[in-house]
Amino acid sequence: MYAEERQQEILRRARTAGRVDVVTLAAELDVTTETIRRDLTALERAGVLRRVHGGAIPVERLGFEPALAARDEVMTAEKERIAKAALAELPEDGSVIIDAGTTTGRLVQVLPADRELTVVVNSPPLATALAARANLHVIVLGGRLRGKTLATVDDWALRPLEHLNVDVAFMGTNGCSLERGLTTPDPAEAAIKRAMVRAAQRSVLLADHTKFSNTYLATFAELGEIDVVVSDAGLDPALAADVAAAGPEVIRA
Length: 253
What we know:
Elements: H1 3-17, E1 20-21, H2 22-29, H3 33-45, E2 49-52, E3 55-58, H4 68-72, H5 76-86, E4 93-98, H6 102-110, E5 116-121, H7 124-131, E6 136-140, E7 144-145, E8 152-153, H8 155-161, E9 166-171, E10 175-177, E11 181-184, H9 187-199, E12 200-206, E13 218-221, E14 228-231, H10 237-245, E15 249-252
Parallel strand pairs: 4-5, 4-9, 5-6, 9-12, 12-14, 14-15
Antiparallel strand pairs: 1-3, 2-3, 7-8, 10-11, 11-13
């Protein structure tokens, strides 16, 4: 088992059980405790686990939200595949919303140069990347800038969304579950995401497989409100079928 595969298995176990133990992991994964400690350190630096005495706890159990830079270093290959697959949902022309986030940020990077689109964003970094594209009309939603996610929130971002009608909203999420839908730790950011979904004729969720079965504080959409879910091949086929049964088409890139 490669280090990345082992670390993903450790993360899966932590999220399933609520915590993991160094000694138990070393025995069950047939590696040394030093190797497990290095894995836990790498996962903590990535912002998905928090080290505790003798083991680690998934950050969602602590109500902790990793910063954007930490999340951007996790599941990079999967996010790139998801972004490329999501291009199939891009209109030939018209208007789109691109939600703040690391996977949606990959979508910005691969947008085709020949499309003339109006793109609405609530992320200054994404707006800066898009502004270099002469064929795009970029609308930036104002408001309070959240340091954790570099997303704009509150009234100055919400009010314009009430009057917008876009073709497709490309959404990110912190958690996705059958019972609670799409969730995020911050209620102000959830309100913006909710308004984005309502402003769009179609909504496309970009979420790698680690986001599934996680639940955070604020729900911003039910699965039935999403038209397409684009994830990666790591999403369990049975869970993908359950998600599809709730309404959206599911694509495993």
